[in-house]
Amino acid sequence: MSGGSLSLSKRFAFAAGTVVFAAAFVYLGTVLLRGSYAYYQFKVKSHAWAGRAWQEDPELGYAHVPGFRGIQTLAADLKVPVWIDERGFRIPSDGAAATRGDRPLVLAFGDSNTFGQGSRAEETYTFLVARELGGSAINAAVSGYGLLPMLLRARRLIPQYKPDVVLIGYAPGLEQRSMTGFSETRLAAIPIPYFYEASQGTLGIQEPLSESIVFDLGLDSYWPTEVGAGDFLSFLLLGAAPALIHRDYVNSYLWLARAVGCAKPPMSDGRTMTKLVMEEIALLASEHGGKPVVVSVGHGPDAADRHALMREIPELRVVNVRGRLEETLPVKSVEALRRAYYFWSGSPPVLVDFHYNPKAQRIIADGILVALGEQPRALADQP
């Protein structure tokens, strides 16, 4: 061997180091690109939240920050106050009496559709139903929740409050959220619990497999700041990069934990999942004197199948939101429904959010009242 040549071990080490360096360089490049796009979304395209609305929860993955007071912006002319009480429930920003505990009590579980994204709390179907019944409301919905956190909250809150009416928001996507083990945002993967099949026809619950850091990064502070090089670098280095690296870690850790048997494989049968969850919530409601009502925003073959499945559950009422809204349209089409019941802004109008607007909320509330045996109130015609 000549004096200037490298040994085999050194050449291997050099090659391995080069590969590692190149992989790290490429990975950091993807972090830069993803962080840049996230910055663009924060500043230009996305909905903004003024204030920190969520925090980590060891059981549910995440939950509302008790006592939160903030603003959700869908567009420059669409800004909605969002208040959360000390129990973690959404309340009207004017302290309306609908939350004071009068009977009948309406308790709602669900995701952003039940939470009422884009609408004021008092404009959501939960509060409208309570108002028409002469009672009060607890809106326990949280944006991004799936069937599993809804069930966990129902197990705790229904025996605690013994509601007269239990509203259960539903869409087929709620099944998928309870199979993944994480909830993805623009930048982060928040570890959440998921269902696994413990035995034939029973649900097991896998707790969150790791902690989240996204709520401690202060990303909400970048919504109002002015666009600039310094702001971008701060966002990238202090917010986006740590969030994205942690996101990739969560995904890799979850895959590895399942691969080596440290975590159960998620349940893949969404139909059975929905049946078991709805049966348990309906039974809980009935045992504590409440009437359970599913408020389904799903549509298409899967939703129709789930509606038929849920209607077989004793005491459970089902409101088909899409069908009820379409009944009100002179021309029944997807575009007509979007124009009438989604959020639009600007001139000419631009679609800014696919959640149902206050007019749709009133029609949904009317459908719920009919399902409860009440006379329709023609709420859609009210201002």
Would you kindly provide a written description of the structure presented here, covering whatever features stand out?
The model has no long low-confidence stretch (mean pLDDT 91). This protein has eleven helices and 17 strands. By secondary structure, the protein is of the alpha/beta class. The radius of gyration is 24 Å and the shape is globular.
Order of helices and strands: HEEEEEEEHHEHEHEEEEHHEHEHHEEH
Secondary structure category: alpha/beta
How does the overall form come out from the CA principal axes?
globular
What is the CATH class of the domain at 47-179 and 268-381? Alpha Beta
Rg for CA atoms: 24 Å
Total number of helices:
11
The CATH topology of the domain at 47-179 and 268-381 turns out to be: Rossmann fold
Q: N- to C-terminal separation? A: 91 Å
Mean pLDDT: 91
Fourth-level CATH superfamily of the domain at 47-179 and 268-381: SGNH hydrolase
Strand order of the largest sheet: 8-7-9-14-15
Q: What is the number of E strands?
A: 17
Q: What's the CATH architecture of the domain at 47-179 and 268-381?
A: 3-Layer(aba) Sandwich
Low-confidence stretches: none
* Relative strand content: 15-25%
Largest sheet: 5 strands, parallel
Fraction in helix: 40-55%
